[in-house]
Structure formats: structure tokens, C-alpha cells
Amino acid sequence: MLATPGALPVGPDWLYEVMWDGIRVLAEVRTENGSSEVRLTTTDRRDITLYFPELADLAQAVPDIVLDGEIVVIERGVPSHAALTGRLLAPVPPAVAAARPATFMASDVLRLYGVDLTGRTLEERRATLERIDLGAASAVAVSPAYTDGAALMTATAQQGMAGVIAKRRSDPYEAGARSPGWVAVAHRRTTTCVVGGWVPDRGKIRALLVGVPDGDGLRYLGRVETGLAVDAVQHAIGLRLVSASASPFRDPLPRGSATGARWCTPLLVIEVAHDGVRPDGTLRGPVLRRIRDDVPPEGAGSA
């Protein structure tokens, strides 16, 4: 179930949660022949279980469950997407994971002891989630739900968080669907973009040239230069760039934008925070927020 970007809905019909800015994951525990195992799957069905061995003890807490939530890595009191990206570069042993531990912030329960809960209301599912004893799973926490959305918006802005997710209390869980019953309210506007080129600088990526699908090519949205400084981010992006001989952009880029650029196959999707769109159609103040492996290139262009 996916959120729809929008303005903050208000009223007693809604619950509000922190937008953790992590990686969305389904955490499933199954038990066969007396052995319980955890499987972590992203929204694009990528199995990332081996990347987060510290979450294996969820199987010790509950032998049969499916949780929806986000994996985050906390640094200096707030989620660090750069640190999370570093954890996604390769599977790691528990000793290495302990140096930069992740936490699974559970926000929903979809199955418990063989019972499918997706047809029940959010309010019922939240009540069930909050009753589950997760004490044996030290790296799993329940993401709190609040009733005052405006206050949560203020608090998350002050703490440097990404925003708030509003969820309608009466809605069932619609797997894979983008629902008006879940509303993502970001403090800055965000757009998913496709990378069509990059500008190298002394062995590093200085800027990404981004756009959105439009007809037979990409419509240019601008250069993203901020948010690329962390080595783990540079490495993760570099692994995903596939060189191309020609520009994937539909129209010639503005003068100076393509100076020194190298083109790539439009496969990599990133989320960009910005302050709106200029009259020329480019993004104002774009900042890389995260890689969106869960969004296909043809699905780019939304929050």
C-alpha cells in the first residue's frame, strides 16, 4: 500500500505517523520444521535479508508474522539516508552491522499467526500491532501513531525529519495500491526523477542530470549537485550508472548544463527534494534525498 502526496488532512478520521525517510520493507517470519526465519522484502520485491542481520531476532519474538514498515539508520538522533545507503552496498556479517545498526520501524501488521489482517481497518491493525510483544527483537520498534497531525508536522520540521504520513483509520490494507487513504505530507516538495547523465569531477560525481519520462525521451528537470558528498552515496550511484552513447533527453539541454556530461541509460531513479519548479520547468534548489530502487523509470515523476 502506497501513499499519495498531498496536503495534510485533518479530523478525527485520521492517524499520523512520522515519515522516516528509510527504505520501505515487508518483514515476514515463517516457521517450518521448528525453525523460524525472517525475510525482508522491498516494495519492488528485492530480498535484502542478508543486508540487515540484526533484524533476524524478529523470529525469536514472533514465529509467524508480516510487518510493514521502514528500515532506518539513526545518526545524531535523526535518520541518515547516506548511512542507510552504505548498508545496502553489500551483505554484511553481524559484527560489521553492529558498527552502523539499523532499526525496523513497524507501522502495520498484515498477518499474525496465520490470520490475514489486511481486510481489517487500520485502527484494528494498529491496536493489534501495539499489543504484540516484540521485546526479543531488539532492532524492531513500533512507529508511534498520533492524533494531532499539525503538531506532528511542527515537531518533525523542527527535528529535521522528512514529513508526516496521514492514514485514514477506517481503511483496509490494499497491497500494492496507491491509496487516497494514505497521504504523504513532506516538508519540502519531492519528485522522483530518472538520471539521464552525470558530470564527473576528479574521479567523483559532481552532478546528476535528471528528468522525467515524456514521450520518447526524458524531459529535463535540472542538475542535482547537493546530496552527493558522502562516499557511500557516490559508490551506490556509480554502481547503478550504465553508460550510453547518446543523450536520453528529449530536447537539447540548456546552455552550460551539459558541459562535461556523460550520458547513461535512463534506469536509475532517485528522489529529489526541491523548492518548486521554475518557469523554465527545472527544479528550484534540488537536493538528492535517496535512491528509489522501488520505483521503475516509467513510474518516475511523482513524490
TrEMBL record:
Q: Which residues cross the membrane?
A: none
Q: Does the keyword Ligase apply?
A: yes
> Keywords for this entry?
Ligase
Task: Please state the Enzyme Commission number of this protein.
Answer: 6.5.1.1
Residue span, ATP-dependent DNA ligase family profile domain: 12-183
State one molecular function term (GO): DNA ligase (ATP) activity
The DNA ligase ATP-dependent C-terminal domain sits at: 202-294
Q: Name one GO biological process term.
A: DNA repair
Q: Which reaction does it catalyse?
A: ATP + (deoxyribonucleotide)n-3'-hydroxyl + 5'-phospho-(deoxyribonucleotide)m = (deoxyribonucleotide)n+m + AMP + diphosphate
Top-rank taxon, per record: Bacteria
Q: Which SUPFAM superfamilies match?
A: DNA ligase/mRNA capping enzyme, catalytic domain, Nucleic acid-binding proteins
**What residue ranges carry the coiled-coil annotation?**
none
Q: What is this protein called?
A: DNA ligase (ATP)
Q: Report the source organism.
A: Pseudonocardia thermophila
Q: What is the lineage of its organism?
A: Bacteria, Bacillati, Actinomycetota, Actinomycetes, Pseudonocardiales
